[in-house]
Amino acid sequence: MKVIVVKTYDEMSREAFSVMKEVVTANPRAVLGLATGSTPIGLYQNMIADHEKNGTSYRGISTVNLDEYAGLDVTSDQSYIYFMRHNLFDHIDVKPENTHIENGKAADRQAECDRYNALLEELPRDIQVLGIGSNGHIAFNEPGTPFGSVTHIVDLTESTIKDNSRMFASIDEVPRQAFTMGLKNIMNAKKILILANGANKAKAVYGLVRGEVTEKVPASILQLHPDCTLICDEAAASLL
Ligand code: F6R
């Protein structure tokens, strides 16, 4: 794993953007695996600024997102599709029909997982962007998730519900379940770019880079990926 330690969140976002720009420039029809959460917002802001200033186009690009809360409608401002539109898609020229995410409202949840797995086979990702949970989760793959997992429904752990409650009016509003790509799906991306900032990620980052490769720390599987780059700030790198 390539590890790049920078001083600030802004620097992390700029470094991440330079990796992303290389992928988009090399292949204007690239498939980008994207994440939600606080961590990649700066990366998305850099992509928007570059699109506006330099005209970098996403017309041929497709995107697939990692995960979506179960039960939330696309119109809910807490849904991950809302997040993606608000923080990226509405500000670049990606075609809406080329942006993909699990349907949180699907009536048949297993059929939705099957649909998404088939889609991921059809759209091999050139890059997968990841954040990391303070418990070492990636996407919503919580500790104990099998390394061979594909898209599935998960019960969120108390620690993830607590971490994510900052985005909701109260902790009771945080959905208890989500759709998520599995660890096997994530590993299938050609390139992985994982970002981490802040002291609350230090333990997880240690597990990601130096810990034992174990299902107890889902991110540790990335040690087995042939092209994985971690960009993190000094606080997140403090235990390395
Ligand atoms: C988001 C996702 C999550 C987050 C992780 C970190 O799509 O899959 O795994 O990447 O929970 O969240 P933040 O960036 O908010 O600290």
TrEMBL record:
Glucosamine/galactosamine-6-phosphate isomerase domain segment(s): 10-223
Pathway: Amino-sugar metabolism; N-acetylneuraminate degradation; D-fructose 6-phosphate from N-acetylneuraminate: step 5/5
Reaction equation(s) it catalyzes: alpha-D-glucosamine 6-phosphate + H2O = beta-D-fructose 6-phosphate + NH4(+)
EC id: 3.5.99.6
Keywords on record: Carbohydrate metabolism, Hydrolase
Residue numbers annotated as active site: D67, N135, H137, E142
UniProt xrefs under InterPro entries: Glc/Gal-6P_isomerase, Glucosamine6P_isomerase, NagB/RpiA_transferase-like
GO BP, one annotated term: N-acetylglucosamine catabolic process
GO function terms (MF aspect): glucosamine-6-phosphate deaminase activity; identical protein binding
Cellular component terms (Gene Ontology): cytoplasm
NCBIfam families linked to this entry: nagB
Entry function: Catalyzes the reversible isomerization-deamination of glucosamine 6-phosphate (GlcN6P) to form fructose 6-phosphate (Fru6P) and ammonium ion.
Family: Belongs to the glucosamine/galactosamine-6-phosphate isomerase family. NagB subfamily.
Protein name, UniProt field: Glucosamine-6-phosphate deaminase
Gene name tied to this protein: nagB
